[in-house]
Amino acid sequence: MRVLVVEDDEGISSGLRSQLRQQGCAVDVADTMARAWAALAAEPFDLVLLDLGLPDGDGSALLSRLRAQPSGTVPDAATPVLVMTARDEVPSRIAALDLGADDYVVKPFDVGELTARMRALRRRSVGRAQPRVVLGDVELDPAARQAWRGGVAVELSAREFAVLLALAEVRPRVLSRLQIEERLYDWGAAGVESNAIEVHVHRLRRKLGDDIIRTLRGVGYFVAAT
Ligand code: CA
């Protein structure tokens, strides 16, 4: 999941960046509304974590602007937004929800709760009610980042898990190598090899079976609808 953190408090944003990266998210940070908008206009994001008190204005203005965009473009009006507010900001929380925020957390928040809320938003945005993803005899648990094949646990790296989940969530749609890369690697990711996605797919097939991820030659990869 590619996440944009819009937060001017560096302590909070760098903590979030490292904790979310450990969870297998690609994380970019913007410390002003202007930088956040530039990021949203440049790359597709799966989720935005939005602070309301920003140096160049109220984060709710960014939210309104995002919701006024078309759907399915970059920036995409349908991008889930989770607002991060202070305890005494009840009116601005209400205003943000009414402007189109999907959820909120109150600072200081527990990162475990935040990531659970992020997974819930992700499920909703891809139209999935069940917490686990079932692909034939393969099962994925996004919360535990655990995979099973035929009921037997299979060890996947964080990136391998992210590739399979990205394809599974949009199945049977095809994702190009670039589209998968955008979900996996933020701007801070060092030394991404040009064949990184092929390597992940190769390892996933070795661990979970050749037919788990299909190739559409010259276009990309997909997971069949099950
Ligand atoms: Ca702030």
Q: Which key phrases capture this entry?
A:
226 residues; alpha/beta; Rossmann fold; Arc Repressor Mutant, subunit A; 2 domains; five-stranded parallel sheet; 8 helices; 13 strands; globular; binds calcium ion
Protein architecture, described:
By secondary structure, this protein is an alpha/beta fold. It has two domains: 2-125, Rossmann fold (3-Layer(aba) Sandwich); 133-223, Arc Repressor Mutant, subunit A. Helices cover 39% and strands 21% of the residues. The chain is built from eight helices and 13 strands. The longest helix has 15 residues, at 111-125. The radius of gyration is 18 Å and the shape is globular. It binds calcium ion. Residues 8-9, 51, 53-54 line the site of calcium ion.
Spatial order of the strands forming the largest sheet: 2-1-3-6-7
Q: What's the assembly state of these chains?
A: single chain
Ligands in the model, by name, code or SMILES, are: calcium ion
Poorly predicted segments: none
- Number of strand elements: 13
Distance between the termini: 22 Å
Shape category: globular
